[in-house]
Amino acid sequence: MPGAIYAEGLVKVFGEVRALDGVDLDVPEGTVLGLLGPNGAGKTTTVRVLTTLVRPERGSASVAGIDVLEHPDAVRHSIGVSGQFAAVDEYLTGRENLRMVGRLYQLDGRQAKKRAGELLDRFHLADAADRPAKTYSGGMRRRLDLAAALVVSPPVMFMDEPTTGLDPRNRQQLWEVIEELVAGGTTLLLTTQYLEEADRLAHDIAVVDHGRVIARGTSDQLKARTGGERVEVVVHRREHIATAGEVLRRFGDGATAVEEHTRRITVPVSGGARLLAEIIRELDAHGVEMDDIALRRPTLDDVFIALTGHAAEAEEEREGTVP
Ligand SMILES: Nc1ncnc2c1ncn2[C@@H]1O[C@H](COP(=O)(O)OP(=O)(O)OP(=O)(O)O)[C@@H](O)[C@H]1O
Ligand SMILES: [Mg+2]
């Protein structure tokens, strides 16, 4: 019995680009699938196919048990999508936008008004509720858009990078909203660049690269696949990065990763606390001053690097700004 979101062998070609090259997904009802992948991996295209906006060349898909290619209208009535159908009307106020969506979904006037009020409170938009949406900041718009996707509680929701551009407080807030939704039985497919977000929200994670799912599992399973622990050292002075790197290379059993601007060096190890003590002695003997040293389990970032050979895009962008 396929899950609430199901896809098999999806292929989508745009000119020369094979955006999807055989994507398979199966999301059990009431769970969250986190779709992770670098820029251009095919995440948005997958969402667009499943939400009936784009027709694939090959493959099949169903959402809430309805065939996406055969009954796109029925699918649209069973889903909520943040960022696309719920397009915000610039000239209407936040409140008017939400009431309009309610009416579109056949709520009566009183219900639509009540629901709009609840969502404005929940997304901290009450103060700006009666201003035209065109006066909203980027983060406020994002929240209005998400609120619009939640006017009715559809059984299946798609969120494409829902927290991009939100400040930490609003991101936290949205996570709580998502957790409530899922506790209420909603099935969610969410794409994100924030590995921490997938870690917190997703029951299952699919890592996509070049239009294919290259790994799949819970965050713990993916971390276990990446293997072992990591020693992470932050040296006090830039000049010590090379020496510390040499030392770690000798103790590690994998490639060292160096982040110049944070002076952080990471290496996979097996040997735990005893090894850590040895590394500290050795760094000391070489006169390397440390700001921090720690033994830690692999993070989703490590998983990402191990699987795709590069960091998640958010990370790359941040590093890209450093000369
Ligand atoms: N309408 C289109 N026309 C041409 N190429 C497209 C179109 N939509 C997507 N692509 C290409 O398909 C590939 C996958 O794009 P997609 O938007 O699905 O990536 P993504 O994983 O969502 O990336 P990001 O993290 O940047 O949002 C990219 O190479 C992109 O340039
Ligand atoms: Mg995208």
Structure description:
The protein folds into two domains: 5-223, P-loop containing nucleotide triphosphate hydrolases (Rossmann fold); 228-296, Alpha-Beta Plaits. Helix content is 39%, strand content 26%. A hairpin with a 4-residue loop joins strand 12 (257-259) and strand 13 (264-269). It is globular. The chain is built from twelve helices and 14 strands. It is an alpha/beta fold and 323 residues long. The strands form three sheets. It has a six-stranded mixed sheet with strand order 6-7-8-3-9-10, with helices on both faces. The protein has helices at 43-50, 72-78, 94-104, 109-122, 138-149, 168-183, 195-201, 219-226, 241-251, 272-285, 300-308, 313-320, and strands at 5-14, 17-27, 32-36, 58-63, 66-67, 79-82, 156-160, 187-192, 204-209, 212-217, 229-235, 257-259, 264-269, 290-296. Bound molecules: adenosine-5'-triphosphate and magnesium ion (MG). Adenosine-5'-triphosphate is lined by residues 14, 17, 19, 37, 39-45, 313.
Task: Give a quick precis of the structure.
With 323 residues, the chain is of the alpha/beta class. Helix content is 39%, strand content 26%.
